[in-house]
Amino acid sequence: MDFCSDCRLFKALMRTVGLSIAVGLSLCGAAGAETRTTSLPRLGVRQDKDGRGEFYNTATGEAVLWRGTNHCRFITYPGDKTFAELYDRDDVETMFRKMRAAGYNVVRVFLRKGNITATDGSATLNEAYMANVVDFIRRGASHGVYTYLTCDWVPDAYVAAVGELPESTPKIQGTNNHYFSERFIRAYGHYWGDVLRRVKAEDRALLTAIAGIDLKNEICFGWSDPFDRREGTLTVPGVGTFDLASAEERRQLANAVAVRWVREIRVMVKAVDPDALVSVSAFFVRDADALPVEPPIRHAALPKHIAFGLAAIQDMCDFLDTHFYVAPWNQPYTSYQDWEGNKHASRLRLDKPMVIGEIGVFRNAVDYDLARGMSLLADFQAETYQHLNARGWLHWLWDARGFEEFWSDQWLIERNPPNWMGPTGRPDPAAPPLAYEPIPERPPDPLPDPLGPPERFHTSEGATLTATPYGYLLTAPEPGTSSARRMLDTPGVKRLDLEAAIHYDRAKHRCATLRFGDSVANRWVELEMIWDGARCRLKGDAVAPREVPVRRPPIAYDGHMFSSWIAVSADLAEKQVTLTFNGNETVTEDLLELKRIDAIEIVRNHDAQSHVAITTATVDTLPLRLAGVFSDHAVLQRDRPVPVWGWATPGAEITVEFAGQSKAVTVAAAGKWQVTLDPMPASSEPRTLVAATRNPHLESRVSDLLVGDVWLCSGQSNMALALAVCARTHPPLKQRLDEADNPLLRLGSVPATWPGEPLTDVACTWRAAAPESAYGFSAIGYLFGDRIQREVGVPVGVINASRGGTWIENWLPQESVETLPSCERYITEYRKALAEYPDAKARYDKELADFNRRFPTQRALAAENAARKQRGEKPLGAPRKPRGPEDYNRPGSLFNGLIAPLVPFAIKGVLWYQGEGNVWEFSIYDQKVCELIRSWRGLFSQPDLPFFMSELAPLGEHSPLPQDSARSRFGVALAKAAAEAGNAWTITITDGGEQKDIHPRYKEIPAERFAAMALAKVYGKPGVCHGPVLGSWRMEDEKAILTFVSVGAGLMVRDVTLDGHDLSVEELVGFELADKNRRFFRAKAEIKGIDTVLVSCPEVPEPAAVRYAWGNFPLCNLYNKQGFATYPFRTDDWPWMTPSAE
């Protein structure tokens, strides 16, 4: 390893993101300053110019590294008395001052299940406990320190409150029940939701001071039911059925259950705080892909537990969190290249940042050499930054007396100022640790040696014996294995082999039963050793040599069974690797199937001279993967060819099997492959899609797939608005949410990202419709899909790819924006903003710092604005962040992140609800949306792909006078675009707005009208599918005579309540007439026959034009008898702002 070059690279990367001595402190002033604030700018996650994930300050756009500590109930750090009765605010203040002086910007803290709930046992939070939690977050924010929340277990009261689940729920007991049971999943979601709601209720601004939510500390399964079963099957609702006799399916079970657990709880957290960063902490083990395996691989510190693969859950998390320690039970860590986790780095997505949420050193793991421990941690920081995309390191400060010893806070902060691992003393995490004055450890009391001095030792090559004050240090042939012990010379033992079994006795001493001996002569000596703190002593006498059977584990490869010598050779020219067994039996594999070298077996052997040999057989295992849109519970489009694609090693032969079809393809040079399944009829039978290679170890499969219709929902905030948000204040949707239970409706969610280039893949999470899955899903998407599924009777999938606050230019391909004449102004302004960004950013930083100093709290700002209101002055607000290169308002940004990676997934049609960002471009919006339709149809290879678009909902205070309206003109532009594009339609929602809320809750209105239109235009359902449309008009006897089409059974006046305005059937309203001077007046209207309306006004004897439902918030009540509202219209083509006579 060229450590110097790696450090130079790290420093260069540091400069590119503009990190200062303490990245986090740049958010709130220099270290040591006394700036007091109760809020911090929200931390977000994005990708840098190289596509790597990073944290950033959403207010300034600057990249941020997490540099901090863990503050948990075990440590001796000042202030850690949990948040219960012993919580000491003064000590917490002292702690944060020290953290700030050291340059730290994040603290990870545990919430305890035994203290956080109410004293009466109800599923509510303990008010005193949560007041302390809020105080902790606020005090941290005042010092520029973010709080990262975690917990070990969900409180029992929350589990009890969920109630009993159906009999179909697996009856798993113990630890595993937390992950298998919907009851526990809901409990975790409600628990974290309540925590965030409590913080939000105290001070909404405090939510931005929460760096992230770790849903559960070191999530892992117990080695118990169902993983200890070896027969039968297990069906987990919403996950699948697994054969417990198969080790592979048990691995799949562990990963699938973990994915569901994280996904569903994350949705419930996001429903409370959509911008919250959510993760779940894990730990690296020797195989980070899937567990349990044979034999079970366990977390070193938790020998009774097993873990799932970190790679399995990465798509569910906003960032990754893994834990690392230099500990005696680990294979000794000397460099990143030797670290077990390094082997699995390529399985992790570098487009998401990683936090090393716990990092520490056991003193006895580095022979009590503090300098060595510091050096290892410094090396690890630099290497994980480069290879694992680590963007944060949180030191574990647990000084666990009576157990293995860590360096505690006294070593990290108090005894060696300036802190040698903190940003103030060591601003560059790639730099060597600062020099320090070591504090000598008190030597242990000498123990008598019960066996006397050692005699002779006959060891194999590489074994050494060294006398120490604590005993004899033997370094065995296995690289890096060492123990403090002594051994007697035994007749017949001419060589030295070593086996050890680690355990703990009742006094919690770490013990080892050591077997020394000659594996050739099959003669052994056993000794037991006990570590007591820093001391090692031998227990008992050496036992006599005895015969012990030699266990040589067999190795299986491609159907061959071998038990000894393995040699590996690779011919890169021929692209082949050869494995030689027993000296003469060989197996050759093409490197076309191989990419990364992984150890599959370690065999201990000996040569003719009885020397020990440790040999590793290596096989390349590049993961074969399907595109992210193909995940469990997805829906594939019926009755049309279905593209299926993914990635693998170039040149590999891929076979895809689904529903009786089998398609083969060779992977292209770029590593991508694609096949096309033949058209399939609708099917509600859950099936498995499998992509496999000739290597039986390489396959990718997704289960519980249905065949039906897939709809894509896209647009900005009104399309993205969650069903749960609408349900809070709109009882009809609360009932729909509570009753959401449709296993044939699948909800697919695409995370919102805005990279600079089109993504090739994205994690699309599919879930069957249920209250938990519908909770955070698009209200329009869910309601539309539910109606379509129940009407048509086939499985339906709805993909939500929407994001609030966006412009149509964000959803167009970048090349379209750059070439479309109607986008010329947008491109010019964007390029100008980029050129001015450095200066604008500098001004913004200064203005924001001045603003924060002037108004350190929200209350201070509110008081100032109250005073300004009394004086008739405009209220103050924080300075506006300038538009820069990382802003999501860029050409093609949302197309790159949400639409491009879905191409060429087969879909039925598109629902589009966007326009608030472009409402004032009503004169050219039709050109832009036509280009969007054209480009999307081309990319999805569906030239007639149906598009359904919604007009904007009314917004703003109703005006009693006639008024021109950009919103009304926008609707006309949308209708024009639908006519030009063909196979596209619009819906009107004049009765679905709120005067003071741009996000009206009445989402059943657009959803039902989208569904009615789709049922008619796509599915051929007969009847009227939309409201009346003006067909023609003429003048007669000083009246305008209007004739409508799509009237169904006839026109009618309907009782309507529009955001507090009650309209009765006694009066038809919403019509206006204009005179020859283009002045509009309110007009009277009446229905004649089934399709005609007569409109008149005494002030306008010769009407020049007529319009209906025109204005920002018009009052109108003309419907057809099928219940559809009449579309707004105007008969003139006059320019903007036609004057009103009134």
Would you summarize the structure shown here?
This protein is of the alpha/beta class. It has five domains: 3-414, Glycosidases (TIM Barrel, Alpha-Beta Barrel); 464-547, no CATH class; 555-620, no CATH class; 625-802, Immunoglobulin-like (Sandwich); 1029-1130, no CATH class. The chain contains 24 helices and 57 strands.
Give an overview of the whole structure.
The protein has 1142 residues and is α/β, with parallel strands linked by helices. The protein folds into five domains: 3-414, Glycosidases (TIM Barrel, Alpha-Beta Barrel); 464-547, no CATH class; 555-620, no CATH class; 625-802, Immunoglobulins (Immunoglobulin-like, Sandwich); 1029-1130, no CATH class. It is 24% helix and 26% strand. Strands 33, 35, 36, 38, 39, 40, 41, 42, 43, 44 and 45 form an eleven-stranded mixed sheet that branches. It is globular and about 105 Å long. The model is unreliable at 1-37, 73-80, 285-307, 398-418, 434-568 and 591-622 (pLDDT under 50).
Could you estimate the helical fraction of the residues in percent? 10-25%
How many DSSP H or I helices? 24
Describe the largest sheet: 11 strands, mixed
CATH class categorisation of the largest domain = Alpha Beta
Q: Give the overall form.
A: globular
CATH superfamily of the largest domain: Glycosidases
